[in-house]
Specification:
20% strand, Rossmann fold, 8-stranded mixed sheet, 8 strands, globular
């Protein structure tokens, strides 16, 4: 399998990259020459540049995106580029890293978690960017999975955690970047969560 990987130098993305590169061929979009590694096909560019995204997804079977949000709506603005390139190259599967804020509230399923008392974050900017990206994916024809971790310390790799479709498991407080990255990697061979958001926590 050949994987197009975005956000591979971030905390979760770097964990995914270490897993993927040991088994699969990888096309990575990176921002700087200093991020290059000999074990993958690295394309220096910008996820907001359509041509760079096209080159990254060319020849791949699956897309994994661990892009971080920012104050410039990078997730919302980049998702159309990813989907356009996937359609052009005939790729259907995409796995992304979201946030627990865009899961449904357990107490009130009519609202998202970041809109409810379950969320402790004061700023909703990041969750709103993730939410718009989710809506774009949901409206697409792709076989998507959004992995939605709660509080994400570096932590350690425990290998034991809980997951639940569309909501965060009860009393979920945290999940390490290592277990989150491992779970994202596992979705390459797991079709139970296609077209769903998945809450993950200890």
């Amino acid at each position: 399998m050949k994987i197009a990987l975005f956000g591979s130098t971030g905390r979760v993305g770097s964990v995914v990259f270490q897993q993927v590169k040991s088994v699969h061929e990888v096309n990575r979009l990176i921002r700087s020459e200093t991020d290059r590694e000999a074990c993958s096909n690295d394309i220096v560019g910008d996820v907001l540049n359509e041509e760079d995204v096209m080159r990254t997804i060319e020849g791949c079977d699956t897309v994994i995106s661990c892009l971080n949000t920012d104050k410039n709506d990078v997730l919302t603005r980049s998702m159309p580029n990813l989907l356009k390139a996937m359609r052009y190259h005939g790729v259907k599967r995409i796995i992304t890293c979201g946030t627990a804020g865009i899961l449904q509230s357990r107490k009130d399923s009519a609202v998202f978690r970041f809109q409810s008392s379950e969320s402790k974050r004061r700023s909703t900017t990041a969750a709103e960017d993730h939410l718009r990206a989710y809506f774009i994916l949901k409206a697409s024809e792709m076989d998507w999975t959004i992995v939605c971790p709660t509080y994400l310390p570096d932590g350690e790799r425990l290998g034991i955690y809980r997951t639940e479709k569309e909501v965060l498991p009860p009393e979920g407080k945290s999940i390490s970047m290592y277990d989150t990255g491992d779970f994202i990697y596992q979705q390459l061979e797991d079709d139970r969560y296609i077209r769903t958001r998945v809450g993950i926590c200890y």
